[in-house]
Specification:
The protein is α+β, with helices and mostly antiparallel strands. It is built from 13 helices and 20 strands. β14 and β15 form a beta hairpin. The chain binds flavin-adenine dinucleotide (FAD).
């Protein structure tokens, strides 16, 4: 238990001092903590690895970390399902699953998040035949405000389950998660480079005919970098010094150093983007899936990401490209473009629509507000829904009409936590919960 320590998120844009930080290592201890807080009318926020840019975890009261509550509780080999403790970091989770011959169907591009944190904000990878990480969840146990442990799944408490799959930590403390896994698989990962025109012409084919496809566009250039991953039986390759140089020295060390130059002299951003585009080479590697999805992220940045209907992608992307040139935004990080299957989770940005995600990154310390605001206006005109963990400027008024199940989610939140024990000021504003709504 640490007291009054200053907490920062990964991006460094948020700082807060909880009055206490609690590290329960069992469900029983989570229940005890929640009951104690209820009796003393204290508020609680759960935290995973603190990788969100939005102030979801912020509190000056009780912060709960499940870092001490990690691991696999049980595996059902017939169903290929694993029940895991909610604090488990994804890199530990995938290593443990691998020992059981299992893997996650899809993942995002880092693996340091907790599984509960990743689920709670709708974290996703890319691949049109697959949904976000919450779609891989088949059941959950949540310690709600009364101290009761609610089990929910597609079969049991289904409404609560659909709300809990992406719940921003507002329904209670998720203690256990049952994941639908797949047999462990290897991926062949290929990188190619082409012009924007060719890339957009080939886009539908790339999306349809590759398991995982995404592309990066380098601002101020006509270059895109395609990233394809497909299942293979080829032997896994050992990490080579060349991989190390690419992942750590080029993608992180060198990129970090030149990014620092663009912070001091923003006009160099254009040249840096062009240099990065020119440096893209053809790469091919084979490895077990969990060793392919994630790459190290040592260069700090701020990020905005919006989900749009997949049909609008080409038009929206070209509008974004045009706006960067028109307003001469001094950005050099590539824009990341991913594609994802729709789902039926109440607060999912991919709710009932196959989706494209466009992510914008700005090096830490450089101005991002005008850039993000301009791009956000484009996304909002095109049915955009923000990534819950990444920077955006929306509150309940703009969010509610974008989510058909918004009121249903709010009703479930109210039912499970009538006094708002799991809300902070940011979440009240985000969800449109008023003080008088809380009993
Ligand atoms: C470098 C970087 C790369 C990223 N890459 C991707 C990517 O590829 N795809 C993508 O979609 N996102 C990506 N993200 C966003 C990231 O996945 C989300 O911010 C995710 O929520 C972080 O997980 P976390 O464990 O750090 O959660 P936190 O940020 O600590 O918390 C997130 C939410 O989860 C809740 N929570 C945590 N634990 C519990 C619990 N036990 N019970 C109830 N609620 C809980 C918190 O209250 C909060 O609302 C990236 C972020 C960074 C910084």
């Amino acid at each position: 238990m640490a007291n009054k320590t200053l907490w920062r998120n990964w991006g460094g844009n948020l700082k807060y001092r909880p009055s206490k930080v609690s590290y329960p290592d069992s469900e029983k201890k989570i229940v005890k903590l929640v009951k104690k807080c209820a009796a003393k009318k204290r508020k609680i926020r759960a935290i995973g690895s603190g990788h969100s840019w939005t102030p979801l975890c912020e509190t000056d009261q009780i912060l709960v970390s499940l870092d001490e509550y990690q691991g696999i509780e049980s595996v059902d080999q017939d169903k290929m399902q694993a029940t895991v403790f909610a604090g488990t970091k994804i890199q530990n989770l995938t290593a443990l699953l691998f020992k059981h011959g299992l893997a996650m169907e899809n993942l995002g591009d880092i693996d340091v998040q907790s599984i509960a944190g990743a689920i709670s904000t709708g974290t996703h990878g890319t691949g049109i035949s697959m949904g976000n990480i919450p779609t891989q969840v088949v059941a959950m146990d949540i310690v709600i405000a009364s101290g009761e442990v609610v089990h929910c799944s597609e079969e049991e408490n289904q409404d609560i389950f659909k709300a809990a799959q992406i719940c921003l930590g507002t329904l209670g403390i998720i203690s256990k998660i049952t994941l639908q896994c797949v047999p462990a698989y290897k991926l062949k990962y290929d990188i190619t480079k082409e012009s924007v025109e060719d890339g957009l012409e080939n886009l539908a084919d790339y999306i349809a005919n590759n398991r995982n496809y995404e592309f990066y566009w380098f601002p101020h250039t006509n270059t895109i970098q395609n990233k394809f991953s497909n299942i293979t039986d080829e032997p896994a390759q050992k990490s080579t010094p060349l991989n190390f140089i690419n992942d750590y020295v080029l993608e992180n060390g060198l990129f970090g150093a030149i990014s620092a130059v663009t912070r001091v002299v923003p006009r160099t951003s254009k040249s840096v983007a062009k240099l990065s585009a020119a440096a893209v080479g053809t790469v091919s590697k084979v490895n077990w899936s969990h060793l392919v999805y994630a790459t190290p992220r040592l260069v700090k940045f701020n990020e905005m990401e919006y989900n749009i209907p997949i049909e609008s992608f080409n038009d929206v992307f070209l509008e974004v490209v045009d706006a960067i040139e028109r307003y001469q935004f001094k950005v050099h990080f590539p824009l990341e473009n991913r594609f994802l299957k729709g789902d039926d989770i109440y607060l999912s940005p991919a709710y009932q629509r196959d989706s494209a995600h466009i992510s914008l990154h700005v090096y830490k310390g450089k101005a991002y507000q005008k850039y993000f605001k301009t791009m956000e206006a484009i996304f909002l005109n095109n049915q955009g829904r923000p990534h819950w963990a990444k920077m955006h400027n929306l509150t309940a008024e703009q969010l509610a009409p974008r989510y058909p199940m918004w009121n249903k989610f709010l009703a479930i939140r109210q039912q499970l936590d009538p006094k708002g024990m799991f809300l902070n000021a940011y979440l009240m504003n985000l969800l449109g919960v008023e003080m008088e709504d809380l009993g």
